[in-house]
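Example with several molecule types.
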Amino acid sequence: MPEAKPKSNWKLKVHEVIYEADTPAGKFFDIVLLIAIIASILLVMLESIESLDSKYHTFFNVSEWVITILFSIEYILRIISVKQPLKYVTSFYGIIDLLSTIPKYLSLIFVGTHALVAFRAIRLLRIFRVLKLVRFLSASNHLVSALRASRAKISVFMLAVLIITIILGTVMYLIEGKEHGFDNIPKSVYWCIVTLTTVGFGDITPQTPLGQIIASLIMIMGYGIIAVPTGIVTAEYSKKEKETENEDAHAISPLPKHPDEIDVNSQTCSNCLNTKHKDKAKYCDQCGYKL
Amino acid sequence: MPEAKPKSNWKLKVHEVIYEADTPAGKFFDIVLLIAIIASILLVMLESIESLDSKYHTFFNVSEWVITILFSIEYILRIISVKQPLKYVTSFYGIIDLLSTIPKYLSLIFVGTHALVAFRAIRLLRIFRVLKLVRFLSASNHLVSALRASRAKISVFMLAVLIITIILGTVMYLIEGKEHGFDNIPKSVYWCIVTLTTVGFGDITPQTPLGQIIASLIMIMGYGIIAVPTGIVTAEYSKKEKETENEDAHAISPLPKHPDEIDVNSQTCSNCLNTKHKDKAKYCDQCGYKL
Amino acid sequence: MPEAKPKSNWKLKVHEVIYEADTPAGKFFDIVLLIAIIASILLVMLESIESLDSKYHTFFNVSEWVITILFSIEYILRIISVKQPLKYVTSFYGIIDLLSTIPKYLSLIFVGTHALVAFRAIRLLRIFRVLKLVRFLSASNHLVSALRASRAKISVFMLAVLIITIILGTVMYLIEGKEHGFDNIPKSVYWCIVTLTTVGFGDITPQTPLGQIIASLIMIMGYGIIAVPTGIVTAEYSKKEKETENEDAHAISPLPKHPDEIDVNSQTCSNCLNTKHKDKAKYCDQCGYKL
Amino acid sequence: MPEAKPKSNWKLKVHEVIYEADTPAGKFFDIVLLIAIIASILLVMLESIESLDSKYHTFFNVSEWVITILFSIEYILRIISVKQPLKYVTSFYGIIDLLSTIPKYLSLIFVGTHALVAFRAIRLLRIFRVLKLVRFLSASNHLVSALRASRAKISVFMLAVLIITIILGTVMYLIEGKEHGFDNIPKSVYWCIVTLTTVGFGDITPQTPLGQIIASLIMIMGYGIIAVPTGIVTAEYSKKEKETENEDAHAISPLPKHPDEIDVNSQTCSNCLNTKHKDKAKYCDQCGYKL
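Resulting structure tokens for the full complex:
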């Protein structure tokens, strides 16, 4: 177990407020952050509407600055209060936190970097952290593990679908040709995906009888093979459900207790950023750091 | 148990006719009401067709008044014959009953309040009461409880889908831009939902190669993730079905008897408006009021 | 058991050829009939293509007459060779057989009765008889009984969907109005069905922000509730499959042997038109008539 | 067991490199081939984009020749190194290998045979061999056998769908007619398939009220019957999964060990082209030829 020097008191306090949702201050912080994220996303969306932007440009700009500065302060506090700042900065959420504050500052230097607006939408991903969906997701854990178990099969299925669309896309390009909107093979493959997935925009449609016959086959195929991913997910999910059920039924089960049944809380280790801790844990079970 | 004074005889009679479907008079009343509701909805629909309205305006208007007055009388009788009128008035169906009569009267005072026509469509919800679908729904109760059990998981799923559409919508806005119909981010998110759900109107379509590649990914994703809600509902429904089956198989089941198997009738308690009563019940099992 | 006089020999012969597929002659007859039906449908389809019709009008007309006369002869032979002609004439296939020959004769009397062409497409239904799909369908019998068991639940579901579309259609009519293609409530309801079922023609699309928000909700709803019929059918079908499996497993099953497992053949009783007979049956199990 | 003369040493070496993926040389060859196939398909796709083709025509042409010659050499080596060349040439992959090299040579003789480009897309099918998906597919073998078990039922279902679309297509043709885009019955049937599969291009849409009512019915039907193939595949797949599970549970299973559990490798018999061999097999289990 690595021996670690205790951090200064205010840092510990900040850590508790920012990283944990179990204290009133932590809960309040999370709610404020959640509102800030949603407000920020709404701002990005409304700003993009020209009629609104021309009217309320100053309001949008000021609000955006307020939120950006708040996020910046939060980012700095997160770095300071964590034991291993580098680990946070290079973590998934660390990068997202940085990307969601930087565009606004860059817009000061480079005028008209409108494209950077996209990075602000990335803030939305932060919602997952604030909502501490970990706890909630553990309820739908069977679903996650069912999807994981299905991954390989669905990948093979998707590869097969891709190959089919490329071949049929080429065929459609040869049959319909430029004059009916099938300008080139990539566009024709795009049309094929649009049709096979039953989306059917209708911006490109086959005009020749032969093209329409092949299109019909693609549609019926798409209509039929949707059964495959559905069948896989359903069967895997049912299996997972049944496994847990059986474990519940036989108390002296030979199988190990399901990990979901361990009570976890939302404390985050200030050393290694591990988030799933047992309810009464006193030390991080990943790095031995005192919680 | 609250001691309640017996209502006057004619009120009891009215209560029986309006609220219960077990007597011939009650059945007759229900059928008339059902026809009135359907006729009323047809009127609303046909009135909205200009060519028909200009021809048969007077007929439509008179019929509408007849139905509105009938519904008003019914509403008043419902209030009178119930023990706790306030409870009825503030109940779900009480509000619907009011909302479905009031627009026509308001159209007398405020000329041209065409918008209120929508409230008349709300009458359709009354069908559920008339059809006393309670009994029928109990047959598909496994479905309802399966949907309830799936609710949390489907909510998480829907939240994830929403976040995906907002992020991808922003990306598409940046790639395609105003010139290809992606006027602003909300509209782009709308397009993203249209595409992900495989609806595909085709009023807005990506024109750039990169936009079409991302659109393809969205479509394939939408085509694949439809498996998730389907898988959840199917698995939950199968589980519920199996539970009942097991109970049927083991006569001396350790599990409590399934509530569906109790015979209920359509009597409505005149005190608390509770509708599910055991077939031979003499007192309301919710408030102890004599049926 | 009704005592029946034996039919004249040639009638019995005809009966065997037309109604049974177990003799070489019967099989040959069925194949010829199958080809005639498919040819007839192809004729109807090709005739409707103007460019082809103007070229090959005489060929189409003559072929159509040949097929019609063949079908007429077959119809008459069917009446003659059956014990109870009235029962055949009023049976499902009897009516279809009549409807598929009569239009051509009527076109002689009433010039330009193009609309009657539809009745010729009805001939397609005859395919089911020729293919003697009975035997084949019994293989997918679990599917049929699963669909039957799901009927009530799917009906309730469909009713709910219908009510939702009518209410949302009215709302969309009020929001979008005539100027955006939502001309009247029925058309708006039609749009709502197009959207909820994820078909999405795109001939009518919401233009107002509020309309697009509600449209998004309709689409997500449609995308989600497709899980309901799928879940019901899958669960019921799995149940049926398992039932049979259990019966197979326990030889001395307390449950009656599954009817599917009785070997049936395609003989048709010449008295009562019953088609499912046990392989070694000598008398019709419905009317006692000698096969 | 047929006695076979050993091939010359270099032929054996070539066989090992081309047909087997277990040696380093074989793995390297497979990776090169995979890259060549993907590059070749990308070339075909990019060539079809006019703006790119006019710019880089020479580059595309040269690259195409390089790949074609490589494929030709590979094809010849495959013929030489195999014991029974005729068997390879007439096998599925033999024909594909030929078809993917020949078009380029033909374009030398016949100028402007652009249509042959389609055959080059067939190269994509070769990917399945290179990826040696056999091993991987055996993981999703339950899926394949589930699909096989569902085949008959899905065929009946598809036949029924086809008959429905033909009849409804004819009805729509009669109702809507030429003036609304339903030019002839085949086109009308095409529209019907577009609608039933919920693709909904929107290039042809019903305009008459009656047409829209029938269209609504078709859409709801399509929305509902998608449950059928999904239900079949899911149920069959679940059954297969459970069977394996049961076998795993009961070690002394009365059922034979599941074939998937035999370790196979990617060696290909140079005599009979059989690809699934047990890991320690020394002779081909199909023809007895030494591996």
